[in-house]
Specification:
single chain; alpha+beta; 3-stranded antiparallel β-sheet; 12 helices; globular
Length: 357
Amino acid sequence: MEKLPLETLTLYAELMEQLMALETHRSIGRVSGCFTTKTVKSETYYYYQYSDPGGVLRQAYIGKKTPALERVVERFLTERETFKEDMAQIQRLCAQLRLGGVLITDTASARVLKAFAESGIFHLNGVLVGTHAFTVLGNLLGVRWKNSAAKTHDIDIASGSRMSVAIPHIQADLPRTLERLEMGFLPVPQLDPKNPSTSFKVRGKALRVDILTPEVSSTDRGPVFISAFKVAAQPLRFLDYLIESPEKGAVVNGGGVLVNVPTPARYAFHKLIVSGERGVVMHDKIEKDLLQAAQVFSALADERPGDLLLAWDEIKRRGPSWVKQAYIGLSAMAKRHEAEHGMLIEVLPELGETGKK
């Protein structure tokens, strides 16, 4: 793990500001396509011209030319130019960040995440979890992770089965979003054919999307339908802790994508917890869990020790079973990553004392 230069951190902060400003001021200029006119019997009519997912050019009737509609078209043209300028600046920033050594998301995954962002998934409390979130967290913390800890082709999106904010009648159709990308995503069948799919995969490639949700009851672990996303999700234990109170982060590729990610401290403790849940046949995943946890703990112990205190307090609040599961992971991490374990104990001495009992 190495720290990124101050100049690179400044560029990343600027990218975040640009992306958040775009999200705050969404405008008509962001809509793809253009206005066109037709004249019929001396009357002028406006149509909106666009390409469908198959590349076929289509036109939608808007209405007869009027002063009010003219103002809409004028606004569209003005804001389209502003949007182009904003996007060009974001692309320049991302190019500079690549040279500055930030962690880059692969092109195919970034394309999927951009489509998810534009569909509104992250506005509806969707959270990017898993290794793609780990990549974003590295850039947020100003560090480069070891390559072996940041490689993946799986895109994991998590959400509660109920939206925590009242946004009536708004949905982000995740299956439709994947279909419109025309990348070849297909639903992955469940072992029980009666259950809906919670994953989508590109045949012959490693690219995969998994939809997750916190487990509510240990007796019912079947897929749960997320109405806001029009898709089923796989319930998982301990996931509620991970996705509670997420923060914003930027995926960096040729452009930038604003996403929700877990707080770094919760991400690290969650990795400890789930590492102990995996069976011995999942050795590689256990090693990756512990490596990611160790690296995040190391970065936070230096720069944001208070975050570790708050995240641990929340685990204790959730009860003895949570604490026990965290200690199982902590013990395993101590054997593999002694230095990072020591840094964590310096911030939270009680972890070392309790571990001896």
